[in-house]
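Two proteins follow. First one:
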Amino acid sequence: MHNGLNALTRRILGVVAIALALAANTASADYLFAFSNANEGVANNLTIDSSVRYSGVNQGWWSATFSNNASNPNYFVGLATEEDDENVIGEHLLNNFFIFDISNLSAPASSAVLNLQFFEAYSSTGAAILTYSLFDVSTNLALLNANTGTSLGIFNDLGSGTSYGSFSISTSHGFFDVVSLTLNSAGLADLNAAISGGAQQFAIGGMLTPTPVVDQHNSVPDSANTLVLFGLAAAGIWSLRNRKRAA
């Protein structure tokens, strides 16, 4: 899985990797779990009956148009806006994923609940509720967890296939709230099949539904310079927000 970077280094690199200015006044951003790089999976878990399985750093996001890297534990999902001095220069859809160790479980499980720390959400239309949908994952899990670069195929995989349920999530949750999402019968069946088949890990993909609309004029390929500039800007925003919360 991810390398052994210390927690602070992962957080800094995670913010640089996402390289997004996620300000609440951006015109078209719709997202859940923003600034989740501060979590590193401490609160995130799949509770299978009474067994709690934490994702740790085995989580992240993929985009077809925006590059990520393996040191980033952020599980942002939705439409992110890339800005330069308050001007929108790019919009990118991100789907997320979580991977859990199931190596010592024995089927059948009777329930499975995905618990995720909320962090922040935003709706450009002022919606009080955003719908977050979970799906099966067919991508090789080592490749998935590397979450480096861009991939239309992996992005699509995380938001398609067998549905594990759709969930209405309030955008007004608090930063440290945990949302609990119970996998439906199809999700439970896949989990039990994985356990019975001796699988070591089980993955869940997620996306916002319906898919937020990308402004094609703002959907531009990123560049190395843009990534660096916005990585530094995002890091500054992250630091400022956390200093304010600590005050």
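Second one, unrelated to the first:
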Amino acid sequence: MLNSRNTTVGFAERTRKNLLAIEAAREAGEDVHVVTQLINSLLGLVVFPWERGFREHTEHLELEALDAEGWPRWDVERGECHTLGRLLRLLRNGAAHSHIEFSSDSRRLDDVVIKIWNVPPKSAPDPDFVASIRADHLRDFCLKFTDLVLDRVG
């Protein structure tokens, strides 16, 4: 039985469940868009837990330590980011302002690179942070983050 969708844990559980269902539907030949669902998953995972106070669980998690645990690495092209909390804040801000770009319209995760950037208020149009990740690695990032939510809160 799933936790309430009103909780960070319940929302994360449903996000994972939906992503896996869309992947299974695609594998079965259905006309669905896994990359789109992946971005919907990322949005739900970086916005909902952030607004529900989960940021305190991520503020001091060093990205270097997460890399050593098998988390996928974001390719930071501009700016600095050393903690998961800062990365999530920048991803959240970029996604909330539609600062997302896809390298292609392919439905294969390993064919698509996703770029997200953050533009601080009053400094438009210059971003202070630009990062990209291949969609299959973003999938792994979302699943690792869901595990983190479940471990820390659930």
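SUMMARY FIELD: The first helix runs from residue 8 to 27. The chain has one domain: 8-152.
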